Amino acid sequence: MTAETLATGVGQRARHRFGSADPSLLVLAATSILLVLLIGLPVGWLAYYALTDRAGAATFGNFITLATDPAFTEPLATTLILCVSVAVAAATVASPIAWLIARTDLPARRTIRALMTASFVTPPFLGAIAWEILAAPNSGILNQLWRGLTSSPDPLLDIYSLPGLIFVIACYTTPYVFVLVANALDRIPADLEDAAGILGASRWRTTITVTIPLVVPAILAGALIAFLQAMTLFGSPAILALPAGFHTVTTKIYSFFHFPPKPQLAAAAALPLLVITIMLLVAQARVLGRRGYTVIGGKSGDPRRLALGRFRTPALILVLCVLSLPLMLPYAALLKASVSSFPGAPFTAEHLTWRHINFVFVEFSQTKKAFWNTLVLAVGTATLGTMLALVISYLTARRAVPGSRFLEFLATAPVAIPGIVLGVGLFLAYTRPPLALYGTLWILLLAFLTIELPVAFQQLRSSFHAVHPELEEASRILGAGRLKTLARITAPLLKSGVVAAWCFIFIGVVRELSAAIMLFTANTKVLSVVIYDLNESGDLGAIAVLGTVMLLITFAVVGFANWISGVGSGVRLRGG
Fold first, then answer.
1. 164: containing domain
2. Which residue among 58, 351, 359, 401 has its CA within the 20 to 30 Å range from the CA of 366?
3. Under 8 Å CB-to-CB from 76, ≥6 apart: which residues?
C-alpha cells in the first residue's frame, strides 16, 4: 500500500466521521437539560412561591409583609451589621499576615501559609461548636480558666452574642482574603518595587505607594467574599445566634418552615438573598479584573524580602496567635471534649473517659445511618459530579459544539446560589408529583451535585489547558469520535485533575449543612445534620467525637488529593 493510498483512506474515514452525526451534540443537549433542571427548576419554583399567595394568585404581598414586619427587618439589619463587620475584620487581619508571609523574612512562611489555608477544611458550623466549648459564658474552658485565675464571677468571653458570632465567622472567612492577597503579592513583579528604590524610596514608602495600591483590588475582592460568606452561612448563626435570642436572614428563612409552615414567605426572603449573591459575585469579578491595577511585564525576579530585625519573633508570635483562633484552640477543644467527662473539666486522669466515644459508636442509633448516608452521598455526588464536569469541561475548553459558552455559564451558575436558598428551592420543587423526591437521598444528591459542580468544573477546566488539542485531533483523524477520544486520550492525561476534583466534591458533601438542613428526614440524616441536632440537645462530648472524625476524614482526603495532583489551597469550599 502506497503512502498516497494510505492518506486517501484515512482522509475518507475522517470525512465520513466528521460528516456523520456527532454524538457529542446529544451529550451537549442532555447535559444542558440536566443543568437547567438542576438550577432552573428550584429557582423557578422559588420565584413562583415568592410571587403568589396560598391560593396561587399573583401578588407582591409576600415582599410587602417581610418589608413591614419587624420580625424580619430586625434579622435583616442584624445580618447587614454582621456582614460588614466580618468583611472589615477579615480584611484587617488577613492583609497584614499575607504581607508578612509574601514580603518579609518571617520564619516558617511555608508552614504558616499551609496552616492558614488548612482552616478551609474546617466546616464553619463545627468551628462555631468548638468555640461554644471554649467560650460559653458558664461552661466554656477559657471562661473557667479566667475565673480560676482572677476569681471573677463574670465571664471573660460570651460567644452567645453578636460580637461572638462576628468573631467566629471572621475566623473562618479570613483565609479567603488571605489567599487572594497573598497570591496578588506573589504576582507583583520585583522590578516595580526595585524601580521605586532606585528613585530613592525607602522599603516602607515603596510598600505604601507601590505594593499596597497593587493589592487593593485583591483586598476588596476578599472582603466581598467574606461579606458573602457571612450573609449565606446558616450553621454558625443557628448555633450561636439563636441561643442568644436573635436571628439572621438564614435562620429566619429556616424558621419559616416551622409549624405552621410559611413557604411563600420563605421563598420571598430567599429570592433577594440570591439576587444579592449574584451582585456580589459580579462585583468581585469586576474588582479583580480592573485594568487600572493590571501588571504587564516580562519575566521578573523574586521580590527582596524586608528584614524584620528585632520584630521577627514578635511578628511570628502574632501570626501564630491568629492561627490559633480557627485551628489550634478549636481543634484542642474538640479533642479535649471528646475524652473528658464534661468539656470544662480539668484535663486530668480522673476526668478522662471513653463514654462519649462509646455512646457515639455503640449506643447512638443514628451514627451508623448518618455515616452510611454521608458516604453514599459523598461517593455518589463526587463520581457523578466529576463525570459531568469532565464532559462539560471538554466541550467548553475545546469549544467542541455550538452553545458551549452557555454550558459554561450553567456549570458555574450554582456558585451564586446560597445553600439555604437552594434548599428552599429544592424543597418547593420536589415535594409534589411527578418528582416527589423529598424524604429520599435523591433530593440531597441533587442539592449536593448542584452546589459542588462549579468546584469540579473549575478544577478540570484549568487542567484541560495542559493538554494540547493536537493529541485529540490526531485521534479524531484516525476515526475516533469526541466521546471516545475523551475516554481514551484526554481523561487518562487528566488523571491528577480528575482525582483532585473527585476529592474536593467529596469534602464539600461531607461538610455541607445549609442545604441539608432544609431537605433531611429521619431516614436521610447526614453527619452534619446529626451534629447540628446533637448541639440542640447540648451533647457536646458526642459532637466532639463526631466532629473529630469528620475532620480526620476530610484531612485524609485533602492529603490524598494533594499527593495525587499537587493541587493546593486555591479551591473554594462551601458549607455550613
1. 60-295+316-339
2. 351
3. 249
Grid cell listed for 339: 475524652
Amino acid at 183: N
Q: How far apart are CA 333 and CA 518, in angstroms?
A: 29
Question: Using one digit for the tens of pLDDT, what is the confidence trace for 273-291?
Answer: 999 998 988 887 787 665 4
| CATH, residue 258 | 1.10.3720.10
Quick one: what percent of the chain has pLDDT higher than 90?
48
The H-assigned helical ranges of 416-494 are: 419-429, 441-464, 469-477, 482-485, 491-493
Name the domain count of the chain: 1
Q: Grid cell 439572621 — which residue?
A: 248
Q: What is the pLDDT of residues 296-340, one digit of tens each?
A: 444 455 666 778 889 999 999 999 999 999 999 999 999 999 999
Q: Is 113 part of a structural domain of the chain?
A: yes
Q: Is residue 538 part of a domain?
A: no
Q: Distance (Å, rounded) from C-alpha 302 to C-alpha 293? A: 20
457 with 39: CB under 8 angstroms? no
- Has residue 476 been placed in a domain? no
- Dist CA 558 CA 560 (whole Å): 5
| pTM of the entire predicted model | 0.85
Cα–Cα distance measured from residue 190 to residue 204, given in angstroms and rounded to the nearest whole number: 15
Q: Can you give the three-state secondary structure of 78-116, one letter per residue?
A: HHHHHHHHHHHHHHHHHHHHHHHHHHECCCCHHHHHHHH
Instruction: Round to whole Å and give the CA distance between 272 and 318.
Output: 40
Q: Where are the alpha helices (DSSP H) in 294-418?
A: 312-323, 329-339, 355-358, 366-397, 404-412
